[in-house]
Amino acid sequence: MKIDHELILKLEKLARLKLSEDQRSKMIEDLNDMLKMVNKLDELDLHDVEPLLHLSNQYNVTRTDKVEDHMDRDAALANAPDSDNEYFKVPKVIKK
Amino acid sequence: MSAYSNLYSLQDQLGTDRTTCVEIVEYYLENIEASKHLNIYVEIFANEALERAKFLDKKLADKSTKMGPLYGLVVSIKDVLCYKDHVVTAGSKMLEGFNATYSATAIERLIAGDAIIIGRVNCDEFAMGSSNENSYYGPTINGIGDKRIPGGSSGASAVSVQMDTCMIAIGSDTGGSVRQPAGFCGVIGFKPTYGRISRYGLIAYGSSFDQIGIIGKNIRDVASTLHTISGPDQFDSTVTSMPVPDYVSDLKSERQNLRIGIFENVLNNTSVSPDIKTASKNFIKLLERRGHQVDEIPFDLLEYAVPAYYVLTTAEASSNLARYDGIRFGYKSPNAISIHDVYTHSRTEGFGEEVKRRIMLGTFVLSSGYYEAYYGKAQKVRKLLTDRINGIFEQYDLIVLPVAPSTAWEIGSKSEDPIQVYLSDIFTVIANLTGIPGISIPVGVDFEGMPIGMQVMGPKFSETLLLSTTYNLLK
């Protein structure tokens, strides 16, 4: 497996990042180095191994389904780069 | 004024005419000022800490009120822990000016325990790094040696304790980020079992790896802090419901005749520096003199730990960092017009190089067509490692390992080779992959005087054993 120009463009799109041409060549090189390191895992026989999915020893931790006050709107909006008094503001999404 | 060696003797002096909380805070503020050239603190809560010290002195004078267990303890917090109405940025331009709207559970409990938070310290961006060089605020410098890295990602946390600017530092450990810098700086670093301390309010990197950790100068203070901040939390369902032992009282209950394993591939590994091999051998001798039995044990999975770690953590990171969209909080690019531009430009301009590298790898290993071959495979390797480690703990009480294959390197000397830096995490990632606790303690210095740390690891929830064993070794 080798990461090429086409794949890196796809990954940039998925990750919502945009690299300059210079950064892109460096990133291709770095990711291929990382994959070379990661490919070491191919040496292991993992046929009968189940994936480890959870690390915690807690199962089905539930809480009472009760509405509680955790954060008011002003606090939630306080860190937004762009908002009015009620909403986060985003550029227009739906065109006429 | 002389340095405060530990919380226990400090609390003895408080409430007499020998010292006050205000004097203690002033002492640490002076030390912060004197170590400014090392770039430890990104924000100093000077006035606030003094106000709080005054409040605690008053509380102490009123003999009818009971003091919290940590009264007088001066603490630095890593720039990834939310502290209500204080800025937290994860060392990133992405969160510049972000004001925490709530406090991390660990921070709440420190304050409820009457500790004093003196400031917020530097770290690698989003805790991604092993050298504290990947920060928006520039690198933090080790107080020992000439222009050496302090380790990472809680590098500045380790230096904050090393330079005596606080008594305890609260950091986070995803792959060694508390133990390795502690080792590089000659102090103690403790990563508890996954699920011992609530992660609520800790800015997420790899959620199934992240654990809040403690850096200090003596085991007793680390044990007191751990006792105060551990335990169930309604905001983090991965925290264990197991009761929190009295770690401090249990320090004296030293267990005799322990069976301890060290991986044989450490002592004959060419990538481990000769001084660290010598330190490991001396540490084994010390354990044997204390009556413990130390065996070299085979561990042929060691080389697979770092690759599995980087697949899984970058995958989790790419998902966790998807929340930085330039809309609800964080940096928003002024160059964006469409909604997609807001996402893409904000993330591209807000994240640093190492963070982007990890997001890209994580995106790749999770993407359609590659998921099974990379992410799925790494999850299986994680299971294999966990089973093998659990198997070792059926025969052995503890595992000891160096903290890293080398001591702290020169700032900038490995910047061009990220893989070499990743591989230096080889001895610490095991604990995070398998969820077990690990503690790093200073054992000496190399030929250049740089500190060497040894790591002691035990089965899940063996904090009491780790703390009492190391307490008695360091005594």
What key attributes describe this structure?
heterodimer; A: 96 residues; mainly alpha; Histone, subunit A; 3 helices; flat; B: 475 residues; alpha/beta; Amidase signature (AS) enzymes; eleven-stranded mixed beta sheet; 16 helices; 11 strands; 39% helix; globular
Q: Helices, strands, pairings?
A:
The complex is a heterodimer of chains A (96) and B (475).
Chain A lengths: L4 H11 L5 H18 L34 H6 L18
Chain B lengths: L6 H7 L7 H14 L6 E4 L1 H16 L12 E5 L26 H8 L3 E6 L33 H8 L5 E6 L5 H7 L2 E4 L19 E6 L2 H11 L29 E5 H4 L6 H16 L3 E5 L4 H19 L18 H12 L2 H14 L4 H25 L2 E5 L15 H6 L5 H6 L3 E8 L5 E7 L5 H12 L1
Parallel strand pairs in B: 2-3, 2-4, 7-8, 7-9
Antiparallel strand pairs in B: 1-3, 4-6, 5-6, 5-10, 9-11, 10-11
Helix pairs in contact in B: 2-3, 5-6, 10-12, 10-13
In N-to-C order, the SSE pattern of chain A is HHH
The CATH architecture term of the domain at 5-43 in chain A is: Orthogonal Bundle
Q: Could you state the CATH homologous superfamily of the domain at 7-251 in chain B?
A: Amidase signature (AS) domain
Percentage of residues in DSSP E strands of chain B: 5-15%
Oligomer: heterodimer
Question: Per CATH, what is the topology of the domain at 7-251 in chain B?
Answer: Amidase signature (AS) enzymes
Query: How far is it from the N-terminal to the C-terminal residue of chain B, by CA?
Result: 25 Å
Q: What is CATH's topology name of the domain at 5-43 in chain A?
A: Histone, subunit A
Largest sheet of chain A: none
Number of helices of chain B: 16
CATH first level of the domain at 7-251 in chain B? Alpha Beta
The proportion of residues forming helix of chain A, as a percent range, comes to 25-40%
Can you describe this structure?
The complex is a heterodimer of chains A (96) and B (475). Chain A is an all-alpha fold and 96 residues long. Chain A has a domain at 5-43: Histone, subunit A, CATH 1.10.20. Chain A is built from three helices and no strands. Chain A has helices at residues 5-15, 21-38, 73-78. With 475 residues, chain B is α/β, with parallel strands linked by helices. Chain B has a domain at 7-251: Amidase signature (AS) enzymes (Alpha-Beta Complex), CATH 3.90.1300. In chain B, 39% of the residues lie in helices and 13% in strands. Chain B contains 16 helices and eleven strands. Chain B has helices at residues 7-13, 21-34, 46-61, 105-112, 155-162, 179-185, 219-229, 264-267, 274-289, 302-320, 339-350, 353-366, 371-395, 418-423, 429-434, 463-474, and strands spanning 41-44, 74-78, 116-121, 168-173, 188-191, 211-216, 259-263, 293-297, 398-402, 438-445, 451-457. In chain B, strands 1-3-2-4-6-5-10-11-9-7-8 form an eleven-stranded mixed sheet, sandwiched between helices. In chain B, helix 5 packs parallel to helix 6 (179-185). The longest helix of chain B is centred in the last third of the chain and has 25 residues, at 371-395. The radius of gyration of chain B is 21 Å and the shape is globular. The two termini of chain B are 25 Å apart. The mean pLDDT of chain B is 96. At the A-B interface, helix 1, helix 2 and helix 3 of A face helix 10, helix 11, helix 12, helix 13 and helix 14 of B.
